[in-house]
Write a structure and sequence with these properties.
By secondary structure, the protein is mostly helical. The chain contains 4 helices and 2 strands, in the order E-E-H-H-H-H. The longest helix has 24 residues. The radius of gyration is 23 Å and the shape is flat.
Amino acid sequence: MALRSIPIRRAGNRTQLFMGGDRELVMFSGLIAFALVFSAQEFRASIYGLLLWLCSLYLLRLMAKADPQLRFVYLRHRRYQRYYPAQSTPYRINPSSQGKQYR
């Protein structure tokens, strides 16, 4: 008896991208540009808002092309500690003097 194979379609396994970039980051940058244009209500502010929108959209597209989940990788990286002291086993309790000598 042969094993039955079920194909996994790409459409059900894709990341949520909007305009080629991460959905939340693209919409947030659009909101910031929109707020800049309509809060200042000047021609110069609308130029800056449009440039901000286009530059952020370009950079977010590059980021999504490299890795669509890069935002989550960066947020996980920020949660890591700066220094992990060496321990012989996870159950050993290091004295406070040991941590001070390595900083």
